[in-house]
Structure formats: structure tokens, C-alpha cells
Amino acid sequence: MSVLLAQQGSAEDLISGALETIQPILEYLGTIAFAITGALVAGRNRMDISGVLVLGAIVSVGGGTLRDLLLQRTVFWVEDPTFLAVGVASAALSIPLFRVASTQVKQAYWLVQSFDAFGLALFVVTGTNIALVAGANDVAATAIGVISGIGGGMIRDILANDIPSVLTDGRLYMVAALAGAFAYIMLLQLDIPAVYVLWVPIVIILVLRYASLRYNVGMPTFVIDEAADPRRQDGDDPPSA
Fold first, then answer.
1. Is the pTM higher than 0.85?
2. What is the SS3 assignment for 188-234?
3. In a domain, 238, yes or no
4. Backbone φ and ψ of 236, nearest 5°
5. In this predicted model, what pLDDT tens digit does every residue of 1-45 receive, in sequence order?
6. Residue at 4 is within a domain
7. Which of 19, 89, 109, 184 is most buried (most C-beta within 10 Å)?
8. Is residue 24 part of a domain?
9. Domain membership of residue 116 as a residue range
10. Model pLDDT for residues 195-223, shown as the tens digit of each residue
11. Of 25, 213, 39, whose CA–CA distance to 125 is shortest?
12. Total number of domains constituting the chain
């Protein structure tokens, strides 16, 4: 699915033959990255082969599906099933990769996080651009870009019976996606080469995400002290979630 860079004001010269080729490649790379995270999480949860393929495929197209539904467009993998096929194939090829990584749980975790960050960055930028091309305003395009980036990971965690990490992990994930989408919108207003408009937001997302993982920095976590729960003071246990 070839999507042109959005035209805005002085950024109309951003549409070039080179980027018409690069963006579909980025979309396929994002699909592959998320499919691999789905397969790795499936293996970590001891799913069978069909579970690996299903989870990998759903995760690989999940964010883009949410994006297209919000924009009331034909869902991209319905229009071009190659994306779904690439997701399934990537998940299948990830099985031997997980067998190697499973000997070291920490390495498997970093594999998931690395591929996830890569998929996040690619889908945020392409999602933001697709929203702009579809006629969304800057605020809506930013939101849809973020949803496009984090949607696949949220679906992956829910299907793996986990609370989505984007909601519980204080390290920069949604913030990184928001920063990348915002940077893309801002750069479109400037008369600069298209390659910078495309790659600077991707680099911003990757740097923020990897830095937060490496140095364990991020947003503060909201915690309620159960001992201070007034229901416990009355002798009643609060209902379990």
C-alpha cells in the first residue's frame, strides 16, 4: 500500500519518488517487527504453533486496523492481504528465533522490547501521515498516529492475558509515540528535505524508548496504599478486580 507524504503548506515539495518507495517499505518493516513481538510473547506464554501464528498476525496489523477504522477507510490488509501474509510468515520464522532466545529470559525480554520499539516508531509516523492525507486535522492526526503505534502492542498484551504494558509500565512508550507524532506534524510546517521529516520523528521515538528502558526513567506511577483503604479499616476486604 503506497501512501504519499502529506502535503501541508510549504511542505508540498516533500512528495518525491524516493519517499513513495520508502514509506511502503517502512510499513512492511513495522508489520514484521510487531509480528515478531507477538510470536515471542506467544512463545513466552507457551502457546501452540497456531497461537503463535494467530497472535503474530493480529499484532502485526492491529494498530493499522484501528487507524483505518477510525478514519473510515478500507482496512489496509483487506485492500492488500500481503501485509497479513507477511505478518503470518514473520511469526512463523520467529519460532526458531524464540527457541534460541528462550534460554535467556532477559534476552527474550529485550528482543520483544527492541522489535516493539521499532514497530512503534514506524507505525506512529506512517499512521500520522495517513491520517493527514485522509483529511484529519493536526490534533486528530497526532492521536491517530499514536493509536496506530501502540494499538498492536495493546492487542498483543490483552490476548496474552496481560494488562497492556503501555498502561502499567512507567517507562516512556505512549509519551515517545506522542513526541514522534508531534515532531512529524511540526516538521511538515518547515521547508526542509523530506528525508528529515520522515526520519527525525522515527529517531526521536527510538531514542526516547531505548533511553527509558536502558536507564529506567519515565512517568511516575500512581499507586494507592491498600493498607490505607477505608474498607479495610472497617474490616471489609475490597472486592477483587
1. no
2. HCCCCCHHHHHHHHHHHHHHHHHHHHHHCCECCCCCCCHHHCHHHHC
3. no
4. -105, 140
5. 444 455 444 443 443 344 556 777 878 888 888 898 888 888 888
6. no
7. 184
8. yes
9. 9-233
10. 888 899 999 999 999 999 888 887 877 77
11. 25
12. 1
Q: Say how far apart CA 19 and CA 7 lie, in whole Å.
A: 13
Of 17, 33, 21, 15, nearest to 120 by C-alpha is 33
